[in-house]
Specification:
By secondary structure, the chain is of the alpha/beta class. It folds into two domains: 1-58; 61-179, Immunoglobulin-like. The chain is built from one helix and eight strands. It has one helix spanning 3-50; strands at 71-79, 86-87, 99-103, 107-114, 124-125, 144-150, 155-160, 174-179. It has a four-stranded mixed beta sheet with strand order 2-1-4-6, with no helix packed on it. Strands 3-8-7-5 form a four-stranded mixed beta sheet, with no helix packed on it. The protein starts with a helix and ends with a strand.
Length: 180
């Protein structure tokens, strides 16, 4: 075997090694680029979710419904701890609580927030909102719901949690007064 042929073999080997290295580098670069794209997309989706850009279930429950003419807006918070225990702190108040006074013909929005850390709660305004929120499963912890109706009948109407729960058994009931 001559030196030259040995050299050729070495040359071919090293060039083949170079091609392998380049391919390996290219695939590695593609892999890194893919990872970067995945991280970027994940970040964008996380940010969009955190900023409530998807709508639907990511509603900010602490935002009051927008005010419109001839509309009475109330917020009712249900909680098992803190100042709102019961309905807006009904645990610490005499029945009826909370009391909502509206004028006949007004549109009414009751923004119901379940801030309970454990239990779902129902919400009912006798005559005006006899249906349940999500059937008998109620409003889950962290959820909110806008009850809307027009106060077209005079009188006092009971407001209550209509599903079984431990906090509203003894701290019932609110009242809606529709006045002339
Ligand atoms: Cu309840």
């Amino acid at each position: 075997m001559s030196r030259r042929s040995v050299g050729e073999i070495n040359y071919k080997d090293s060039s083949r090694l170079g091609i392998v290295n380049r391919q390996w580098l290219r695939s590695r670069r593609n892999l890194l680029a893919t990872i970067a794209v995945v991280i970027t997309l994940t970040g964008l989706f996380t940010a969009a979710y955190a900023l409530h850009l998807f709508g639907g279930q990511t509603t900010d429950c602490w935002r009051r419904p927008a005010s419109t003419p001839n509309t009475a807006i109330f917020t009712v918070v249900m909680a098992n701890e803190g100042v709102n225990v019961g309905f807006n702190g009904s645990k610490y108040e005499a029945v009826p609580w909370p009391v909502m006074n509206v004028t006949l013909g007004q549109n009414v929005i009751i923004h119901v927030v379940n801030n309970d850390s454990v239990e779902p709660h129902g919400f009912q305004v006798i005559h005006y909102f006899d249906q349940e929120i999500n059937g008998l499963s109620g409003l889950a912890p962290g959820q909110c719901y806008d009850v809307r109706f027009t106060a077209n009948v005079l009188g006092s109407f009971t407001v209550q949690c209509n599903i079984f729960c431990t906090i509203h058994q003894v701290m019932l009931k609110g009242q809606l007064n529709v006045e002339p």
